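Morning!

This is the sequence you dropped in the shared folder:
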Amino acid sequence: MNVQIEYEFETEQKAYRFLNTAKHLSAQNLTVKFGRSDHHVKVAYEYADNQFDTTASELDDLARDLDGEEVK
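The structure's back. Tokens below.
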């Protein structure tokens, strides 16, 4: 299953820091890039089959640490 999440940050610097950190997570077919603007980051990955996948939780925690939040 393909998962796509977009996060918004207060500054470009925080978005860039999130982007550079998130792209090193171990997730299948992970892509991390800027989204709608330089304050948004889009993340896409394949949900791990046959095991509990913590990627979304890790991304949420990282975004929260950088004062970001998921865009609905």
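Headline: The first helix runs from residue 12 to 22.

More detail when I'm at my desk.
O.
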